[in-house]
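Notebook, bench 3.
Goal today: get a predicted structure for Histidine triad (HIT) family protein from Thermostaphylospora chromogena so we can plan the truncation constructs. The sequence was checked against the plasmid map this morning, with no discrepancies at the termini. Length recorded as 119 residues. Pasting the sequence as submitted so the record is complete.
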Amino acid sequence: KVWHVETDCLFCKIVAKEIPATIVYETERTLAFRDINPQAPTHVLVIPKGHYRDAAALAAADDGLADEVIKTAHAVAVQEGVHESGYRLVFNTGPGAGQTVFHVHAHVLGGRDLGWPPG
Ligand code: 5GP
Ligand code: ZN
């Protein structure tokens, strides 16, 4: 593997196929799979295959990977048919914002009316 793998990281294990997931889209450096506890008709998680703990660490990598994650998220929205009705991209960053898995992931949410503010 060319990317960094963190021992005992749930999403690194999904990348390694050690834990099953419903993969819906993949690029060389990113992976998209359905959330196990969906909060909307479309609820997909997009991750870099390499381990970064949060969005700040991903942005600091400064190698185009954050771009690729966002492009993959949009491709997922198109594939899921939610790009025209509207969809939401969320990076929960830090425990105070509800981040529970510390391998950065963008939530792609769509397929229903999404309230704002999110609460
Ligand atoms: P966070 O709260 O960190 O922003 O989001 C973590 C997300 O990961 C949650 O929406 C949760 O449902 C999802 N999740 C947790 N464990 C698993 C798993 O084993 N498989 C999948 N596909 N999603 C998971
Ligand atoms: Zn990881």
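The helical segments are 10-15, 55-61, 65-80. The beta strands are 23-26, 30-34, 42-48, 87-90, 106-110.
Flagging this for group meeting.
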